Amino acid sequence: MLGKRIATAVVLLACCVAGLWFVPHWAWTLGVAAFFSIGAFEWARLTGLGTPATLSIVLAVAASICAPLAGLPLSAVALAWAVSGIAWAMLMPAFLARAAAVRKAALPVGWLVLAPAGAALAWLGHSPWQLLSLLAIVWIADTCAYFAGRAFGRHKLAPSISPGKTWEGVAGGAAGVAVYLAILQASGAAGTGPLAGAAGWSLAVTLTALSVLGDLFESLVKRQAGAKDSGTLLPGHGGVLDRIDGLTSTLPVAALAVYISAG
Questions:
Q1: CB neighbours of 81 closer than 8 A, spacing ≥ 6?
Q2: How far apart are CA 109 and CA 90, in angstroms?
Q3: Do residues 41 and 54 lie in contact, with contact meaning Cβ atoms separated by under 8 Å?
Q4: CB contact at 8 A, 64 and 37
Q5: Rounded distance, CA 35 to CA 37, Å?
């Protein structure tokens, strides 16, 4: 299982690198839209949406991600990122605290989960190294949490939602991100970007916490659907939603931080 997980991650990373450096930005955007559209289809299946609603959310997510190619101002996209950040800070924790039925609001919540994140991934592709440095926070947090949880996990984080996640895993993920950011800043690789200085630490802490929230929220949706994985497309990972759960909650905030700092 671990071997499949690593192999799939390597393939996805290779596709990501190839898309960022060797294709035009419009093609990268279309690729992101296609990937997140698959995630939207998985979301519709998990939340019990019928065929018309499934088609609606898939098209809405794809159109939202591609809208800047048609001339939608970046300020409007940034507003969507801000709304997404507020939702992840207030709405999603309310769902988790009450174990509320996500399917009752599957269409708007699904759009909030997927569209702003996909638009963020597409836009951040303009600066590949900066994007990878931000994505690395989620990847490192997830990987370190996995191994720390397996080795030291004793205290459950949210047993009714995701029995496998532990506070020790969260601590391991946070420690991994701290080491990563310290190296990034000490080597000068952070430059003057969003991960530089004290603001970089604040952003890293925020993204690490949000990645845990995104993971838990997808676990809630899967538990309510009685599913172990969101799909079977990615060996060792499950579906697209299983791979991007931490990104759905972090990318909009990361993109907003880059947008503000650049403004």
A1: 116, 119, 120, 252, 253, 255, 256, 259
A2: 13
A3: yes
A4: no
A5: 5
Separation in Å, CA 142 to CA 147, 212, 243, 250: 9, 8, 10, 13
Q: Do 208 and 177 contact (CB within 8 A), yes or no? A: yes
Q: What is the mean pLDDT of the chain?
A: 94
Q: In DSSP terms, which residues pair with 166 in a beta bridge?
A: 156
CA dihedral (18, 19, 20, 24) positive or negative: positive
pLDDT at 2: 62
**Domain, as residue range, for 143:** 2-262
Please report the DSSP string for 18-44 in residue order: HHHHHS-HHHHHHHHHHHHHHHHHHHH
Does residue 192 or residue 108 have the better pLDDT? 108
What is the distance, to the nearest Å, from the Cα of residue 2 to the centroid of all Cα atoms in its chain?
21
Nearest to 247 by CA among 156, 86, 165, 136: 136
pLDDT in tens, 150-173: 999 999 999 989 988 999 999 999
Question: Beta-carbon neighbour count of residue 224 at 10 Å?
Answer: 18
State the DSSP string of 104-118: GGHHHHHHHHHHHHH
How many domains is the chain built from?
A: 1
122 SS3 class: helix
Q: Is 162 helix (H, G, I), strand (E, B) or coil?
A: strand
- Packing angle between helix 25-46 and helix 2-22, nearest 10 degrees? 140
Strands, DSSP E only, in the chain?
A: 156-158, 162-166
> At CA 188, angle to CA 244 and CA 261, rounded to 5?
60
